[in-house]
Amino acid sequence: MNAYEHDNNIILDLVCQSLENPYDNLYLSNLRSNKPTLSTGEIRRYCINLHSANCESITLSANTHEFPRINYKNYNGNHYQYIYTALLTSPGELFFTQIQKLNVQTGSIQRWGKKNYYLGEAVFVPKTDSQQEDDGVLLSIAFNASTQLSSLIILDALSMHLVAEIYLPLHLPFGLHGNFYKNTQ
Amino acid sequence: MKTSFELIKNDLPPAAPNLSIAYSSQYDEITLENLRIDGEVPTWLSGSFVSNGPGQFEVGTTHFYTV
User: Fold this and answer.
1) How far apart are CA A106 and CA A13, in angstroms?
2) What is the 3-class SS of chain A, one letter each residue?
3) Most Cβ neighbours (<10 Å): which of A51, A68, A146, B62?
4) d(Cα A97, Cα A75) in Å, to the nearest integer?
5) Which residues of chain B make contact with A125, given a CB cutoff of 8 A?
């Protein structure tokens, strides 16, 4: 999700899976079953020493994650603090139920979820002229299993509180990735 | 070996009761205005949110095998 050079080390952060082939889980017969196996992993940091070429890894968050995002606009390739992921909070869940914000410097975690809601990738959009890395919003397309309809969730990335929910009168099939493109005027 | 884009004629198992719709096709291409909103959308947030993913899971009677 990000990589940068720091104190003679290359820091490389990614979601790591132990599965031989995570794409096997993308068969619809698996995803549509009552007990699907979702391809998720832990958030792992590799530190590669540029002098010794020694490589060490640590686990930053051992939960079951996918769809990692950061403030790419301002922090891609730079020293940074925050990773946003979709996660399963228990192994038996059918799809991702929470959005997690992880501070990779302190290890602190904030999460948001809503009953009966299944959440897609959370796309970070920085606030105009933001000074802080997490000053912005997260956009996630949710599926409400109660109403069988989709909605757009807007979270305040600073507090991880819900800012707004926009209800759609139809379902959107679970998506993969997305991006927000600001109007330029 | 199945590939991601392999199409087969197959009766897929029934979807799980509560997420079956989320893995079913959406044929409508619509423009919506005046949607119901809880809370307030930040005034600085103006633009286009684009999301990719499967929209349809079958062509006629032929079903996709994977997303």
Assistant:
1) 15
2) CEEEEECCEEEEEEEECCCCCHHHHHEHHHHCCCCCCCCCEEEEEEEEECCCCCEEEEEEEEEEEEEEECCHHHHCCCCCCEEEEEEECCCCCCCCCEEEEEECCCCCEEEECCCCEEECCCEEEECCCCCCCCCEEEEEEEEECCCCEEEEEEEECCCCEEEEEEECCCCCCCCCCEEEEECCC
3) A68
4) 27
5) 45
The pLDDT profile of chain A, 185 residues, written as one tens digit per residue, is 999 999 999 999 999 988 778 888 899 989 988 888 888 899 999 999 999 999 999 999 988 999 999 999 999 999 999 999 999 988 788 999 999 999 999 999 999 999 999 999 999 999 999 999 999 999 999 999 999 999 999 999 999 999 999 999 999 999 999 999 998 76
Q: How many CB atoms lie within 10 A of CB B10?
A: 14
| Contact predicate A55/A38, CB 8 Å | no
Answer for the pair A66, A38: CB distance below 8 angstroms, yes or no.
yes
Q: Which of A23, A28, A168 sits opposite B12 (nearest CB)?
A: A28
Q: Where are the domains of chain A?
A: 2-167
Interatomic CA distance for residues A172 and A149, integer angstroms: 8
Nearest CA in chain B to A175: B53
- Across the interface, whether the CB atoms of B25 and A173 are under 8 A apart is answered yes
Closest Cα in chain A, distance from residue B59 (Å): 15
